[in-house]
Description:
mainly alpha, 0% strand
Amino acid sequence: MAGDPVIALGRAFLIETTSGTGALLPAMLPFDKLPEFVRGFADTPLFRAGQENQMRVGGLARRRSES
């Protein structure tokens, strides 16, 4: 799949529309920058999960107060 031109074009499109044309791919990063990249990548889903949890808790509290 890595040699598939459609996949390569789609990947390039997503990266350029999200981060701009000068974005570095993870494989292009220097080794000393990878831990920082991975930490930032891991922080994003954790942040989103926290938001989802706050919305869920808020919704449950509203339902209880309406009952």
